[in-house]
Design a protein that fits this description.
Elements lengths: L1 H27 L8 H29 L6 H28 L9 H25 L3 H9 L1 H20 L4 H27 L1 H4 L7 H25 L8
Length: 242
């Protein structure tokens, strides 16, 4: 009994700590003009709430997934890109748009990255805890090293386009940038899930593609952060390069 409690505590730490560490890392990228901690906390908590909103939505979308039950790869594609990626990334986008986008503190392109990552880390933290509570230490470890960074990079890249949309020259350009951010997040998230969901059909080897996917997305996000900081500098904000 004592050992099971120890495993539970370790699993909980492995589930929550990576999300909090990545949140801190991306929050510090905006260190010259950091966002209010109270607003950051609220967006993070809303990300947690979104996890429970996603559950019934994904169950509803799973009904349509059954239309592809005779076509295994289409079934997996729908599950990865629609049931999981579309629902979860759209919820993160909704949080940022409803609770941060119009806030006066959202006054830089970089802020889009920060708020989207915070929403994503709230979501990923609770999702990870739910997975780990019914899993093992191995589940906790593998998700800490893959699923959490996946959520961070997908959310961060979406946030970059949200940040650019804030300063778009027209409503049409604003919508186009927001939609591009959502599509980017869905592509990264959906590809990650597809590579894992398709293991019964494609084997284990393709699933290793999640490693270059996550690493590549990290470096793309890093480049986008540099671009965001450069755009903010042009608007007169004094920020440091990462």
């Amino acid at each position: 009994m004592e050992r099971s409690w120890v495993n539970l505590v370790i699993s909980f730490i492995l589930a929550a700590a990576p999300a909090l560490l990545l949140l801190r890392y991306y929050y510090r990228q905006d260190r010259e003009r950091p966002e209010p901690k109270g607003l950051i906390a609220r967006i993070f908590l809303l990300g947690i709430v979104a996890t429970f909103v996603a559950i019934p939505l994904e169950m509803l979308m799973s009904v349509f997934q059954q239309l592809f039950v005779s076509f295994p790869l289409l079934y997996v594609l729908f599950k990865a890109f629609v049931v999981a990626a579309l629902v979860e990334e759209y919820l993160k986008l909704t949080i940022v748009r409803l609770f941060a986008y119009r806030n006066p503190n959202f006054d830089e392109v970089m802020d889009g990255v920060v708020y989207a990552v915070v929403a994503g880390m709230g979501f990923a933290c609770m999702e990870n805890i739910l997975y780990v509570m019914g899993g093992t230490l191995w589940t906790a470890l593998t998700r800490a090293l893959t699923a959490i960074p996946l959520h961070a990079t997908a959310s961060g890249l979406m946030g970059y386009y949200i940040g650019r949309a804030k300063f778009a020259p027209s409503p049409q350009a604003e919508r186009a940038l927001i939609n591009k951010g959502l599509r980017t997040a869905i592509f990264i998230h959906g590809t990650y899930d597809f590579l894992l969901f398709a293991v019964p059909f494609l084997g284990t080897l393709p699933s290793l593609g999640i490693i270059p996917l996550i690493v590549g997305a990290f470096f793309v996000l890093r480049a986008r952060i540099r671009s965001a900081l450069a755009e903010d500098r042009k608007r007169g904000q004094v920020v440091d390069e990462i």
